[in-house]
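step: validate -> pass
step: tokenize input -> pass
step: predict -> running
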Amino acid sequence: MASRATDEPPRERLIQTALELLAEEGLEGLSLRSIARRAGVSHGAPLRHFASLADLLSEVAAHGFRVLSEAIEKSAAQLAPGVGPLARLRAGSRAYVECAVANPALFALMFRPELLHADNASYRRDGGAAFEQVVAQVRAAQDAGWHPQRDTRVLAGAVWASLHGLAILWAQGALSGPVPRASLEDALTTALELLMDGAPGDKR
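step: predict -> pass
step: emit ->
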């Protein structure tokens, strides 16, 4: 594909180019040279804006967490007025899985710490903010009577892990063999029912 022709600032241009390559070619297609080539800059240009490939990929992962946060926030905004906190948690959980399945390569990168810089400020901030959204929804559900005795952050971590596991297994096609007739909607509805201790239509 031709290189990008854009007036974007160089740093943002490289991040957007990396996002494009990631979506098209997966993690295997990401290198400083391939990103520079697609962006239409010299091979050494990325290192003038990022300390390393890991630093650049950390910014890409941070973008992914912002996309996730926006999806969770939008899911709550679309609910009818007066809907309870458990329904909000359920909606946010659904948004998580749908976002992950829609962006499999991006989510694969977001949770590959060996490819990233753990100290990257954007990665730490945006990854932390996404988890805190789940924590806030879990805390509100607990206040309404859902597992009130549990440690909030441990419970939020368990919810996150359950949703992430379903999303990754589905995106990789790992469930198509053992569960050949299941749809994503079937799997997600069942998982949410088990997680939330109630029927999918529960408005609590």
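step: describe -> The radius of gyration is 19 Å.
step: cleanup -> pass
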